[in-house]
Amino acid sequence: MKKFKWLWWLLIIAAVGFAIWFWKFRSEESVIELQVEKPQYGNISNSVTATGTIQPVDTVTVGSQVSGTIKGVYADFNSTVKKGQLLAQIDPSLFEAQVQQITANLQSARANEVYQKSNYERQSKLYGVGAISKADLETALYGYNSAVSNVNGITAQLTSAKKNLSFTKIYSPIDGTVLSRNISEGQTVAASFNTPTLFSIAKDLTKMQVQASVDEADIGNVAKGQRAIFSVDAFPSDTFGGIVKEIRLRSSVSSNVVTYATIIDAPNDQMKLKPGMTANITIYTKELNNVLLISARALNFQPDSVLQKVYSIQGKLQENNAKRTRMKQVSKIEPSGGSNINADSAKTAFVWLKKDSSLVLHRIKTGMDDETQVQIISGLDINDEVVTGYIQEKKADLKNNTQKSPFMPQRPGRSNRRNSASPPPR
């Protein structure tokens, strides 16, 4: 009996060991899910980003050419003004007194001119009959000419004084909106050295411009006429459009970063954009519409030993060779009719196509690459199945997933194996 008892214990230990091995150490069967996609027609673009400030297209600063005390201010912030409208006035009393004084001097000079003219004419008659010498005649002529010159000089002074008097009234030079008012009634304006700025007027706020600061690494791709979009913090859900108008050659340096001012025209019909707003700008340096596209990760996919157990691999290409071949320039592609493809450098690349139970290496030619999608020049059509990666999952996990609620969070530690190419490096 003892002999059979030890036999039973051995059988029990063997069964327990098999159970532990079965549940813990046996290799579970897995399922490979191949990720494929078909080329599709769409739009692709390259762009650069920048920040900038919104400004009116045309801003005029209004100053004063004379000094004095502000007598009245007739325009305020945000006022809509017309050309020739009175904005402010400087106390004109001193200038009026100066005009009156010079006017009196002019009247005296004119009276002297009349006297000197009459004296010259009388001396001229006396000289004609030999009653006086020639020196007396020349003295009379000199007095008359001096009187005429004195009248002309005082007349010019009077014109200048009247002009200065007119400068005491500040008029708007354009139709527009007052952006800033830098004076108040009773304030003293001194215009002896620099012309003080009294008002700043924007000509038309329905036409704004964005002054973008574009980095020197990106400015080479920016050109006049390119499309741009931007957003402002005041309206985060709105996108505004514009066109690159000008690239200014003068650079600016801040924290060892060189940027160039790029002017973008921006319509403002809804009057949402206000001067001084900060804009986040995207400039589209190149755009292609209605071209054949695939994901960029398809160009970096490479089947490994896991897929070789399931699929027949036809062709072999090392990853480094694929990247080097992808960057190789092969030929120039001319624009084709009916599409917006610009002349561009075509590059040779390789992708893997799924054909039944086989993975076939296929050569293609690519164009523009935005790091997410790649333009297909030739080698693919919309019916091809291009492999981008695969997912390896255990059958037990798949079974558990079918029993779980889709609204429950996934349990951590799931044993999944993924093989998909990352986006190509910049």
UniProtKB/TrEMBL annotation:
- Which terms in the GO cellular component ontology are assigned? efflux pump complex
Q: Which UniProt keywords apply?
A: Membrane, Transmembrane, Transmembrane helix, Transport
Q: Gene3D superfamilies under this entry?
A: 2.40.30.170, 2.40.420.20, 2.40.50.100, Helix hairpin bin (1.10.287.470)
User: Where is the CusB-like beta-barrel domain positioned along the sequence?
Assistant: 210-285
Specify whether Transmembrane helix is a keyword of the entry.
Answer: yes
Where does the Multidrug resistance protein MdtA-like barrel-sandwich hybrid domain lie? 59-196
> For this UniProt entry, which segments traverse the membrane?
6-23
Q: Give the superkingdom in one word.
A: Bacteria
Which segments carry the region annotation Disordered?
395-426
Chain ranges of the Multidrug resistance protein MdtA-like C-terminal permuted SH3 domain: 349-392
Q: Chief localization class? A: other
Recorded hits in InterPro entries, A to Z, give: Beta-barrel_RND_2 (IPR058792), MdtA-like_BSH (IPR058625), MdtA-like_C (IPR058627), RND_pump_MFP (IPR006143)
- Quote the subcellular location field of this record: Cell envelope
Write out the GO MF terms: efflux transmembrane transporter activity
- PANTHER family attached to this UniProt entry: MULTIDRUG RESISTANCE PROTEIN MDTA (PTHR30469), SLR1207 PROTEIN (PTHR30469:SF33)
Q: Which family does it belong to?
A: Belongs to the membrane fusion protein (MFP) (TC 8.A.1) family.
Identify this protein by name.
Efflux RND transporter periplasmic adaptor subunit
Query: What organism is the protein native to?
Result: Ginsengibacter hankyongi
Output the lineage of the source organism.
Bacteria, Pseudomonadati, Bacteroidota, Chitinophagia, Chitinophagales
